[in-house]
Each structure stands twice: as structure tokens, then as C-alpha cells.
Design goal:
Blueprint (H helix, E strand, L loop, with lengths): L2 H13 L2 H18 L5 H14 L12 H11 L2 H13 L3 H5 L3 H7 L2 H12 L4 H8 L6 H11 L4 H13 L1 H12 L2 H4 L12 H18 L4 H16 L3 H25 L3 H4 L2 H31 L18 H13 L6 H26 L2
Helix pairs in contact: 2-3, 3-16, 4-16, 5-10, 5-15, 5-16, 7-18, 7-20, 8-9, 8-18, 9-10, 10-11, 10-20, 11-18, 12-18, 12-19, 14-15, 15-20, 19-20
Amino acid sequence: MNLDLWTLVTAGFAALTWGNVAMMAIGGLLIYLGVAKQYEPVLLIPIGAGAIMANIPLTGMTSPGGIFALLYDAGIKTELFPLFIFIGIGAMTDFGPLLENPRMVLIGAAGQFGIFGTLLVALALGFSLNEAASIGIIGAVDGPTSIYVSSQLAPHLLAPIAVAAYSYMSLVPIIQPPIMRAMTTRQERLVRMPYTSRPVSQPVRVLFPIVVTLATGLVVPMATPLVGMLMFGNLLRESLVVPRLTDAASNEIANVTTIFLGLAIGSTMAAESFLQVSTLLILGLGIVAFALDTVAGVGLGKLFYLLTKGKFNPLIGAAGISAFPMSARVVNRVGLEEDEGNFLLMHAMGANTAGQIASALAGGIVLALLAG
């Protein structure tokens, strides 16, 4: 074989490092979790594939002008991808359970406690304020919000923050139940909350996203892009007159954006930037943030239990995070384990949708304080 041709064929192997191999293995693990365990497969599979390709030497895919660089510049730097995802989420979300039981807003607010608690822990560990805030936003348990905030405050930490946010979203059924059981008594878990549907009129459903957007814009302007896109998607849904736009937002746009977002995140998982002590700390702090969210939500649920003289099931507090609708389903499942006739799903859905709005607001508050 010609020497130049041999050099060309073996160049990739020669440039391969143990770090590249390790990151390819991590990418493969993410794909495995998505395929075999079905943990957030729509994100973990593209992220894993992006991580593998980004660590193949000499491809030029992450270099200026390369496909991954173009995706990152077009969708992450400009913040378009997270905002497009929020339109899709809004188009798929029914805020009816929240409108029927407005007190669940307080549960959603409590579910964001992990953001600010983890921020303080990260500061104590030596992270800068912007880095600590970006790490803390993992506590929103909301991938798009985490990406949106960290891309502005600490873009160099985007990869581990995004991986932690989406990984822990997929681990809701594993992480939350032990905390829920440890914080509640069997008597509390057995509380039945009969669901009496109070139909919400269409005018109220249409006005809700408009009012929320206006209130957010006037009180927390920096949160308007996140909340506004979420509410715009919901307005499409509730208007009932643009089914094609609703379908496009919740299917084609959301699906295509998810693919590009996952690949762009995966492309940032290059060995030289990802394989650091700070990455392990971020992954650990993500667990702390998630646990604090759950503790705060269940804690407020226990307070409601006392105030209502035993008529509120504290398990519902765990649904105050933004992992919709997975967290609501977990609450319902834990309730059914204690009493097969105790259905908490609709109550938990109200808290879960409140958590979606609260997470976007929390992200905007963080940005207003640090980037405004």
C-alpha cells in the first residue's frame, strides 16, 4: 500500500486518545439507557450519538463550519432550540387540572427550591456565581430551561448540565419514591382526595396563556422568552381553531428540534472539556438539586395536610417539579401501592403543570439577577 494512503487510513487511529474512547463509551451508555431502559430516549439517543461522533478524530464536524458547529451556533447560542421545544411542550400540555385547583401553584413554586439550595452548595464548592446558578438550574428538572440558562451564564458547562438535567428527568421513577416514602407516614399516603371535575370554559383556557405571559413580562421580563413560548404553544392548543399549527408545534417542530438539540448537546461532550472533576461535581449536584426539590414539595404537601386536617395527600407535593407528566404518574403509582383505589393522578397533574410554569419563571429570575 502507498505510504501516503496508509498514513491517511491510520490517521484517525493515531489521533485517537483514551479520553475519546471514554467519551465514546459514555455516548454508548446514554444510547443503551435510551434503548434498553427507555430513559428519555428521544434525547439520550441523539445526545449519545452526538458524543460518539464528536470524539472521532479529524472529522471536522465540531470545527467552524462543521455540521455540529453550525447546529450549536444556530440553535444553542441563539437559544432557538430550547424555545422551540417550549412551544411544543405548551401545545401538548393541558393546564385544566391547574385551573381547576389553583392552590397547586404553591406546590409548583416549592418544587423549585432545589435550584437555589444547590446554587449555595455549588458556591461553597468553589464555582463562580454564574456557574453555580447554571448548575442550580438543574433543579428545575427541565432540560430546555437548563440549556437556556446555562448557555447564557456558563456555556462551557453546558454539556454536563444538559446531560444531568435530562438524565435525572428520566430517573424520576427511581429517585423520587424513596424520598416520598421516607418523608410521609402510611396514614398520610392513604389520604384519598376525590376528584370533582369543575369544567373550565374555553374563554378561560384561552385567556390563561395570555394573562400568564403578560404577568410574567411585566414582573419578570427575563422569563418572558421561556414562559411566552410555553404559553404560545398552549394558546394554539386551546384556541381550537388552528389544529394544523398545534399538530406541527407538538409533532414536526418539536421532533426535528429535539433531534438537532440532542446532537448539538452531544457534540459539546468532547473529551478535553467533559472529562474533568467539575463534571463529576455537577452530576452530583444535580442529584442534590433533584432531592431538594422533592423534599421541599413533599414538605409543603405535609403542611397542607395539617392545614386541611388530613384532607390533602402530601405525596402530591413531589409532582411540583417540571418533569411532566412523569412525576405526576410516579405520585399516582406510589399512592396506588398503598391503596389500589387511591387515584391521585389528576391532582398531581395540576401540581406538575404548575411546576412547568414555575421552572421557566425560576430560570428567568436567575437570568434577571445575573445577566440582566
